[in-house]
Structures are given as structure tokens and as C-alpha cells.
Design a protein that fits this description.
Elements: H1 2-25, H2 35-44, H3 48-71, H4 74-88, H5 113-128, H6 135-155, H7 169-185, H8 190-207, H9 221-241, H10 251-257, H11 259-262, H12 284-293, E1 298-299, H13 316-334, E2 342-343, E3 348-352, E4 357-362, E5 366-371, E6 374-375, E7 387-391, E8 394-397, E9 429-430, E10 438-442, E11 445-448, E12 453-457, E13 468-475, E14 482-490, E15 496-502, E16 506-509, E17 512-516, E18 521-527, E19 529-541, E20 547-557, E21 559-560, E22 568-579
Parallel strand pairs: 1-2
Antiparallel strand pairs: 3-4, 4-5, 5-7, 6-10, 7-8, 9-15, 11-12, 12-13, 13-14, 14-22, 15-20, 16-17, 17-18, 18-22, 19-20, 21-22
């Protein structure tokens, strides 16, 4: 009942934020898109200035749209009509980063993530408010959606673009938006039936194939939220339209639906492998929707639920459905159609075998999250064998997650960016080389033993012949102490370094490293060390473009070279103890 009351408070606050912001926006003008802003990405790779204005305009559309749906006030409706006309007048709904103007004469009509989102938004808002918006605005908006989104997709050959056959969130977002708009706007007939069949095929044979049966999203939790929200929206709308077609019913989709609750920890910390986020807020609406579908969905603390302004892109799908799905779930709980919300589990072990992730939880709200996998994953970082260590809401050994998205970030220069390289992860550096990018650079063993030991073999990730790297990770469930043992075979004379990463302050004291958190300190002891600890501070531009100082802790490891042997052997043991 306590969590249920927290969710009620959440939705009440959400509505008050909508009302306050809608009142503010009614008296403001929308920011204007210009050719100068559009061309910046083409000239210098910067996408942030254009996108700030673009998403600022979607803020008007989504907030005033929801305010109009909730309260039906004349002033909101009038302002919303102005906004819709301006959105319909935009030269291009796609983002500059997704448009190649010099190569594509039809660039104005490109369907990308945000063009499809804009189309779905206009289709949905004009349907919900069909009795209140003026007829000319409804006709204008729906004709634009048909001309810019539905008609080009229907008339295209398969695939419309690479996203139609992608195994990542692009598929779910674009197909989900096109499908949702089609269900709202298209007349019954053969054309609509063929379109829905095409979208179902794309979602089932490509998007869902990007997941293993463990349901893990290797791109990161934020991308799980993004893709699965649109998948769920379309799946439920289609099920209502045609009950014989239920994309939510499969065993794999059930596993995907339970992924979020495995990724949250104390203090709102989240798994941040690949381009994830270590402090991702969660979608209350989607979580409530899934709890309506599956009885054993668990909720993170409502403190970490995404607020109205939590999405810098101001996507309608998140903003509207966070309100609607939450209300519906609370009604269903009240009417005994759904179970009361359950909090996260605080202990135990979980293995996501297809992704090769393992999560161990212990005392003092500790957790270690380790991965095997390969270096050809979606939004890949060269991080096979890495882990991060959390204590009471703080990351003492970190995974940086996504950096600032620039042109270079998605080019052949990707692995020159610090957060994507091996040295920005908690993995050994062997012979002063990073791990290599590519699916073949992978872990060849990953398991959790009965004694809660994580075992990883990942020498192949470095691409060096005849090299073996074994790692064993153990979290004491009763104390939260973490122990990591590395055993490395390499060519004689190759230098081996341990490499650990944290955002927290670090000092060297009494032949140990102390990592200083706000509530605890962690003391790091290293066996097999040769020489002194080396602390290097690296400047990192995070996903918001904000510069952070990252502390890299490194030390040399003694490497024995048996007489007449062609193999050097390095043994290293890392122990981390928590103090107050």
C-alpha cells in the first residue's frame, strides 16, 4: 500500500507540473528553427544547438497537448492549434544528423526516429481532441502525417531504410510510430492490412531478434526504455484492434518486460554498460503498463521515476502515456484487476546468459555487475570482462556509459573517444594496447558458480595470439567486500597493468588506494603489484556534453617468466573493503 500511495503522489505531482508548465508556455513563442542551425552538423559535427530548438518546439506540442486532454481549457486548445500549425510548417521533421542533404534530394521527407515520433504525436493528439480542435487544424495535421510518414513508407520497397531491418531501438521506435499512426488514421482495407503485416514482420524478425531469451538490452537501459515503450504502445494498440495478434504474449517479450527491474540499485543507480546511463530515471507509465500485463513486475523507488521534464526530447509517447498508463494501473489495482506494486529485491544473484551479464547483490546495498559479451555489440564499448561496484547508492568503480554524441562518436574515430576505449573500463591493460572492436573479440567463458563466483575468460578480446586472461569476481553477501582475481598468460616481456576507473576522489594511503564516497570509503588492496600506484585524471565529456574528471587507478603487475618458457604469467588480486 505504501508504494501504491507513492505512485498516487507521483501522478498528482505530474499533473500539477503539466498545469504549471502549460500556463507558462501559453504566453511564450516557440523557438525558431533556421538554416544556420540545421547546417551546423554538416559543417562541424555539432548537433546540440539545432536539437535544443527542435525539442523545445516538441515541448510546446507535448505539454499543451496533454494539458488539453486533461482539462479541455479553451486557452490551451487555442495555443495548441498555433503550435500544430508551426510544426506542420517545418521544412523537415527529421534531425540533421539523420539526413544526408547532399546525397538525397528527398531529404525533407526522411523518416527517422523523430519524424516518425512527430507523425505519431500529431495523429494521436488530433484523434484524442477531434471534437475540440478546429477542423482545418485536424485536416492539416493528419494530411501532413499521411504525406510525410504513411505514404512514403507504404510506397517504399522493403526495407524503407536500414532501421526496418535493424535489431535495435530504431526498429521499434520507427515501426511502432508508423504502425500507431496507421491504426489511428488509415481506413480499413487491403493497404492497411499489408502495412500492419509488414510492421509486424519487422518487429518480430528484427527488433525482437536483437534480444536473447534473457531479455537483456545490450545497448543500455535507456535504449531498452526507448525501444520497448514504442513496441509496447503499438503491440497493445494492435491487440485492441485485432485480438488475434498479440506481440506481448511470447516468452521472450515477457523476459524483455522484466529487464528494467534487474538493472536498478540503491540511490537510483543503474547498469551503464555500452551507451547506458549510471543514473537513469525510469518511466513510471511504462512500468505501470507492464505491471498491468505481468503480475511480477517490480518498481524502483518512486524517487527515481522520470518527471515531466525528465526527457530532454519531450517525446509525446513518454509524456502522455506516463500519465495515462499510471492512472489506468492505479484504477486496476483499486478494482482488483492488477496486483499492488512490489518494490525491488535487495539481495540475490542474477545471470543474463545471452548478454553475459551477472548481477550480485550483498550487504550495505552493495552490488557488482560484470559482463563478458563481445566488442561488436550495439552502441559498443571495448569492455569485455569489465565490471562496476556499487555501495549504498555510489559507484566506487564505475562504468561511464554514454559520452557526448558527436559526429566522431559514430564514425571510424569512435574508439579514440575515451569512454568507448578499453582504458576507461575496469579491465587489465596488456602490452599497452586496448581491447579491439569487433564481434570476434569476445569472452569465451562466462558463468556464475554455485559459490557465487563470476568466472570470465576474455583473452580473445585483446586480439593477441596465444594470450589468455581469466578473471574471477566474488562479492561477500554478508559484508559487501569485493574480491577480483586475474590470471594472465602472455608473451614474455609484455607489460601487464591493472586499470580501474572511478568518478570519486582517490588518494594513496599506507600502500593502499582509498576511494572517497559521501557515506563510505572503500580501501583497495592489490596483491601481485609491482611499483607504485599511478593515479591519472582524464577529462571526459559526458552524454550531456558536461566535462567530468575521471580518476584512472593503474599499477603494474608482476609477470613471472619461467625459465625456457614462451609464456609470461601474471597473477593479480584486488580486494575492496568498505569503511564508514
Amino acid at each position: 500500500m505504501e508504494m501504491q500511495n507513492q505512485i498516487k503522489k507521483y501522478v498528482a505531482l505530474y499533473e500539477s507540473e503539466v498545469r504549471k508548465l502549460a500556463d507558462q508556455l501559453r504566453n511564450e513563442s516557440m523557438p525558431q528553427l533556421t538554416e544556420e542551425l540545421f547546417s551546423e552538423f554538416e559543417t562541424n559535427g555539432n548537433r546540440m544547438r539545432y536539437e535544443a530548438v527542435y525539442f523545445g518546439r516538441r515541448k510546446f506540442l507535448s505539454v499543451l497537448g496533454l494539458a488539453s486532454v486533461i482539462w479541455h481549457e479553451k486557452e490551451d486548445i487555442q495555443k495548441l492549434e498555433e503550435v500544430i500549425r508551426e510544426i506542420c510548417a517545418e521544412e523537415c521533421w527529421a534531425l540533421p544528423a539523420h539526413v544526408r542533404r547532399k546525397e538525397n534530394p528527398n531529404w525533407r521527407g526522411v523518416i527517422d526516429l523523430f519524424a516518425s515520433e512527430t507523425g505519431q504525436t500529431l495523429a494521436h493528439i488530433t484523434t484524442l481532441l477531434k471534437d475540440e480542435l478546429s477542423e482545418d487544424v485536424i485536416t492539416l495535421a493528419q494530411n501532413e502525417v499521411k504525406a510525410r510518414i504513411l505514404k512514403p513508407f507504404i510506397e517504399s520497397k522493403v526495407p524503407y531504410a536500414s532501421w526496418e531491418q535493424a535489431t535495435n531501438n530504431w526498429n521499434a521506435v520507427c515501426c511502432g510510430n508508423v504502425g500507431s499512426a496507421a491504426l489511428l488514421l488509415m481506413e480499413e482495407g487491403t493497404e492497411k492490412k499489408k502495412l500492419l503485416e509488414r510492421l509486424n514482420y519487422a518487429l518480430e524478425h528484427y527488433y525482437l531478434e536483437g534480444f536473447g531469451m534473457d531479455g537483456a538490452c545490450q545497448e543500455g537501459l535507456g535504449y531498452w526504455v526507448y525501444g520497448f515503450t514504442y513496441f509496447t504502445l503499438f503491440a497493445l494498440a494492435q491487440r485492441e484492434y485485432d485480438p488475434s495478434k498479440d506481440l506481448m504474449a511470447s516468452e521472450k517479450v515477457n523476459a524483455i518486460a522484466h529487464f528494467q527491474q534487474k538493472c536498478y540499485f540503491a540511490g537510483g543507480r543503474t547498469i551503464s554498460f555500452s551507451d547506458g546511463d549510471s543514473r537513469g530515471t525510469y518511466p513510471m507509465g511504462l512500468t505501470c503498463c507492464l505491471a498491468d500485463q505481468y503480475s511480477d513486475i517490480r518498481f524502483p523507488d518512486t524517487l527515481y521515476a522520470q518527471k515531466l521534464d525528465g526527457d530532454s526530447c519531450w517525446r509525446w509517447v513518454g509524456i502522455y502515456w506516463s500519465w495515462y498508463w499510471t492512472h489506468r494501473y492505479l484504477d486496476d489495482v483499486q478494482n482488483k484487476k492488477a496486483e499492488e506494486p512490489k518494490p525491488l529485491e535487495q539481495s540475490g544473484a542474477c545471470v543474463l546468459q545471452d548478454a553475459q551479464w551477472c548481477i550480485l547483490r550483498g550487504a550495505k546495498q552493495t552490488a557488482v555487475i560484470a559482463k563478458g559479451g563481445n566488442n561488436g555489440e550495439p552502441h559498443n564499448h571495448n569492455d569485455v570482462g569489465s565490471f562496476h561496484y556499487l555501495v549504498d547508492g555510489e559507484a566506487f568503480l564505475d562504468d561511464l556509459g554514454a559520452g557526448e554524441y558527436t559526429k566522431d562518436y559514430f564514425s571510424e574515430k569512435r574508439y579514440e573517444v575515451f569512454c568507448n576505449r578499453g582504458e576507461s573500463h575496469n579491465i587489465p591493460i596488456i602490452g599497452d594496447v586496448d581491447q579491439k572492436a569487433g564481434k570476434e573479440y569476445c569472452a569465451d567463458r562466462f558463468e556464475l558458480t554455485k559459490d557465487r563466483n563470476i568466472l570470465i575468460s576474455f583473452g580473445k578480446a585483446y586480439g593477441i595470439e596465444a594470450q589468455k586472461v581469466y578473471r574471477e569476481i566474488w562479492l561477500d553477501e554478508n559484508t559487501g567486500k569485493l574480491t577480483v582475481c586475474d590470471y594472465i598468460q602472455c608473451r614474455p616481456g609484455v607489460e601487464v597493468h591493472e586499470n580501474l576507473v572511478t568518478r570519486l576522489p582517490v588518494s594513496v594511503e599506507n600502500d593502499s588506494v582509498v576511494i572517497h564516497g559521501e557515506k563510505h570509503c572503500v580501501i583497495l588492496h592489490a596483491e601481485g603489484r609491482k611499483g607504485e600506484f599511478k593515479i591519472k585524471t582524464v577529462e571526459h565529456s559526458n552524454h550531456q556534453g558536461i566535462l567530468e574528471n575521471i580518476n584512472v587507478i593503474r599499477w603494474d603487475v608482476c609477470c613471472d617468466e619461467p625459465q625456457n618458457s614462451k609464456i609470461g604469467i601474471a597473477d593479480s588480486k584486488i580486494c575492496l573493503h568498505i569503511t564508514e
